[in-house]
Design brief:
The chain is built from 20 helices and 3 strands. By secondary structure, it is mainly alpha-helical. InterPro entries: Peptidase_M32_Taq.
Length: 491
């Protein structure tokens, strides 16, 4: 056995254990009894201790020192790139800190859920202060004198800096703000009304998951407070949520998470339980979920088909025809919730979070002032006040579990999706004819072959550039949004 073979065998077990840890997280969100929260925190801490020990094991350093990457093929070199990056990160973070963070964030997630239910940020603030303090300690260790937030971004979007994201957001904000103002001043499409059986929502939700290529033999659909996708390879699970008055929340949460899950399921099986066996980055991951959800799932062609599915499931639900339904699905309205936001306003929600979490990590914003800062920024950006904490600072789970640096990848995903959609439409010029029949295969096959099958083989921007034929830029996304919503709102 060569040094490379020994390293990959060792890393395979580490990858498998990480999947087990991920399954604990899935269970915590879906089925775990509430009284198990503290015990689960101990379990997660124990798993993190094992994983950290493996990632920093002495033999890892010996293998990495002894392997000549240039003697490997392209796949081997990519595997080494990921393993070296992971090892460098793990050796910078003390084991005690990694374990403490795993324990704390597991408990903090439960406290966040309780505070959210009670609309009580003050009840959550103390544990969030602990999380922020530990994450800043971790960031300092990773940054080694550099920018803390940039160091954190590498966990989600390798090669990207806060300054680069800020530049993209600065280019997007004026166009989005102007489009939002014009749309909100125009006549609104007809709105959905009435109530929709939640069991019927879940039935149609699962049908939509299969329509977008989700393999139910290697996955499952459950319900959670905050929809998410979990796992990779041959065990990829998703969650959605139901609200009696808003079936779109269920349907498009499902389609969004299927975008993530299909990416993981479609990665080359040769990469299973290796560093290449997951997506290239969270931004690339979001490009898949957002293009499934928006450019495909909210298109005029696909919503025409979905209109028929809604009538079959719920009977006459008050929308006259396919055109009215298309406008209804894509209606732009005032709202507080990021995950429920329309395409015009979604990125404005992300920009708010990016600026606030960056300030938290730099020490320019204290947790005690976070709710007020959120409310002030929201009022300035959207023109109306936050009514309760669950519609404001407590709406997202991310900060409770320490995911600082994650939020901007949502908008990077939208930018990437804009580039991919432009290339997809060129490659499959009759795509709308297929989508009108509920056939997503030409789109999902193109995404599988050009993005998903590669897993982590390439760096994030290289992945998008190779697939779309262009360096990632916000221009295609802004062009798409402008044309779509000017058309819907007759601007």
């Amino acid at each position: 056995m060569t040094l490379y073979d020994a390293l990959m065998a060792f890393d395979r077990d580490t990858q498998a254990l990480a999947q087990v840890a991920g399954r604990l997280g899935w269970d915590q969100e879906t089925m775990m009894p509430r009284g198990a929260a503290d015990q689960r925190g101990e379990e997660m801490a124990a798993m993190e201790a094992v994983l950290h020990a493996r990632r920093t094991a002495p033999q890892m350093g010996e293998w990495l020192a002894g392997i000549d990457d240039s003697a490997l093929d392209a796949v081997g070199q990519a595997q080494m790139r990921h393993i070296r990056r992971s090892h460098a990160r793990a050796t910078k973070v003390p084991a005690a800190l990694a374990t403490k963070l795993a324990r704390l964030t597991s408990v903090a997630q439960g406290k966040w859920a309780e505070a959210r239910a009670e609309n009580d940020f003050a009840a959550f603030a103390p544990v969030l202060e602990e999380v922020v303090a530990l994450k800043r300690e971790e960031g300092a260790a990773l940054a080694a004198g550099g920018d803390l937030y940039d160091a954190m971004l590498q966990d989600y979007e390798p090669g990207t800096t806060g300054a680069e994201i800020e530049a993209i957001f600065s280019a997007m904000r004026p166009a989005l703000t102007d489009l939002r103002a014009a749309v909100l001043d125009a006549e609104k499409p007809v709105a959905l009304s009435g109530t929709y059986d939640e069991g019927a929502q879940m039935k149609l939700s699962r049908h939509l998951a299969r329509t977008f290529g989700y393999d139910m033999q290697r996955g499952r659909v459950d319900k959670a407070v905050h929809p998410f996708s979990s796992g990779s390879g041959n065990d990829v699970r998703i969650t959605t949520r139901t609200t009696p008055t808003d079936p779109f929340n269920c349907f498009y949460s499902t389609i969004h998470e299927v975008g993530h899950a299909a990416y993981e399921q479609n990665i080359d099986q040769a990469y299973l339980l290796t560093p290449l066996g997951s997506g290239a980055s969270m931004g690339v991951h979001e490009s898949q979920s957002r293009i499934y959800e928006n450019q495909i799932g909210r298109s005029r062609a696909f919503t025409g088909w979905l209109f028929g599915q809604m009538k079959d499931a719920f009977g006459d639900f008050g929308i006259a025809d396919e055109d009215a339904f298309y406008g209804c699905v894509n209606s732009v309205n005032n709202g507080y919730i990021r995950t429920e936001a329309d395409e015009v306003q979604y990125n404005l929600h992300v920009m708010l979070r990016f600026d606030l979490e960056r300030a938290l990590m730099s020490g320019n914003l204290a947790v005690a002032d976070l709710e007020a800062a959120w409310n002030d920024r929201f009022k300035a950006d959207f023109g109306y006040a936050v009514d309760k904490a669950s519609n404001g600072v407590l709406q997202d789970v991310h900060w409770s579990v320490g995911l600082f640096g994650y939020f901007p990848t949502y908008s990077l995903g939208n930018v990437y999706a804009g580039c991919l959609n432009q290339a997809l439409r060129t490659a499959v010029p009759d795509l709308d004819d297929h989508l009108a029949q509920g056939n997503t295969v030409p789109a999902t096959d193109w995404l599988r072959d050009n993005v998903q099958v590669n897993g982590g083989l390439y760096e994030p921007r290289v992945t998008i550039t190779m697939a779309s034929g262009m360096e990632p830029t916000e221009a295609p996304l802004l062009d798409y949004l402008t044309a779509k919503f000017k058309g819907i709102y007759k601007l």
